[in-house]
Amino acid sequence: MKCPQCGFRNLPGTKFCGACGADLTVQSSTTLEPFYPPRAWGRRFRQPHPEAEQARYRWRRWLPFRRPDTNPTLTLQQISEQRRLRRLIWLTALRSLAGLIPGIGLLRERRTQEGWRLLFAFLICIAIAVLCWRNFLSNIALLTIAGLVVYSVGATFFAAWQRNNLPTLSPLQRAGIWLTVVSSFFWALTVAGVVLSIWFGTAFVPFGNTGDAVMENNNLLLYSRIGRHLTNLKPNDYVVVDGERARTITQLGFNYGDVVIQFGTPIIARIEAVRSNVNGVEVEIAVPMFLGSNIVWAKAVAPMEAIQGKVIAVLNPPSRRRWLP
Prior knowledge:
The termini are far apart. The protein has 3 domains: 1-35, no CATH class; 80-198, no CATH class; 205-323, no CATH class. The chain is built from 8 helices and 9 strands. The chain has helices at 25-30, 50-62, 76-95, 104-108, 112-131, 137-163, 171-199, 227-230; strands at residues 200-204, 220-224, 238-241, 247-252, 267-277, 280-291, 294-303, 307-316, 322-323.
């Protein structure tokens, strides 16, 4: 508010001039003048750090050209709708996990006819795998079960998607979802194999022993590292032994004089006896070895600490597939 006599600018609402004391009420009733506060001339504002400014320039240099956003701002209703769709998609993915048992997921999504067919095929494959465990048909049944699981999970996902009235998918999006389901299945197999290898281990028989009724060359073995298996060892059990800690005493079956046999690591052997002495518990093992064209059962002794696992199953080939007692 400017004083009409001296020109001094007073604050709005002032009745008397702060410089000359003139009455300002007459002017305020007739004319109103807006008040503009003085600017902070000469004030020094905070400057950015030079290194931060350089880093910002380098980052902006590599950014692509961004067009201004011409779309209108999303309303709260649109944001809530997007959140609802995201929740529905995650719930659909979780409900598709019921398809890990073929047919169950489709039955939950009220696809009864297709669900009962998948469940019946799954039970038939399990019966074939159990009855033909020592036959090549068991491998085909196991592969069929894997295919049924992948198809069941994918079909359950799309059935739940349709039931939740989610947006229609294009063929490219459907193909991407199928690829995701297949890759997730292989990732699950990999993780299961890693977890299984923590408790168990697999090894191939590195020798050919025609005189053994249980194992033969290139058999795939499953051995256990669980403590209760390693503490209940008895004769005729097959074990995986650290060959560097085993020492040869005699040879069984052939006499080649003073032949020194050096074992590799690890070796697969059959337990002959378990004995205790001043050095602790030792295990007498029979190891098949190649000497020329003949197979010699070399007798060796290994400490109990050298036993890495007990063979509990022969997985390959199917004709010899079995669980060992």
